[in-house]
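$ ./design --mode recover --in tokens.txt
reading tokens...
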């Protein structure tokens, strides 16, 4: 029984203390940047530390923001991003999303139908103006 407790304790201590999304993010960055990315994180201890650091820094962003940042970075950067660059992309995307949400929340004035009598008055005025101009042209 003591052996079982030891296994549980030791397996618990080897559990990564970072957001599992970093596994996916790091794998995708490895697929995009190949050797440039993989060689940077070839040391397992450094890889684990880096994932923890990235996780802590990016935990405020949801999956959509991370995905959009990755899509932009892969189209714009020829070299792998460092954490501050990736964070900046995420921040800008988050601001854009929030701005769009705020714009959609703003209420526009409700449409008020114009009185049909007022509409008819304006139509008649336009007709008078157009027909008056047409009569003047034919009379010359």
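writing sequence...
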């Amino acid at each position: 029984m003591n052996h079982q407790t030891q296994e549980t304790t030791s397996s618990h201590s080897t559990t990564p203390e970072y957001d599992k999304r970093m596994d996916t993010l790091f794998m995708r960055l490895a697929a995009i940047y190949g050797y440039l990315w993989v060689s940077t994180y070839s040391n397992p201890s450094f890889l684990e530390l880096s994932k923890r650091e990235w996780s802590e820094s990016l935990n405020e962003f949801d999956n959509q923001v991370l995905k959009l940042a990755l899509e932009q970075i892969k189209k714009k950067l020829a070299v792998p991003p460092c954490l501050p660059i990736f964070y900046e992309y995420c921040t800008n995307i988050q601001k854009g999303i929030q701005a769009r949400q705020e714009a959609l929340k703003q209420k526009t004035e409700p449409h008020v139908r114009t009185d049909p009598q007022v509409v008819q008055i304006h139509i008649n005025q336009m007709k008078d103006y157009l027909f008056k101009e047409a009569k003047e042209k034919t009379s010359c």
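exit 0
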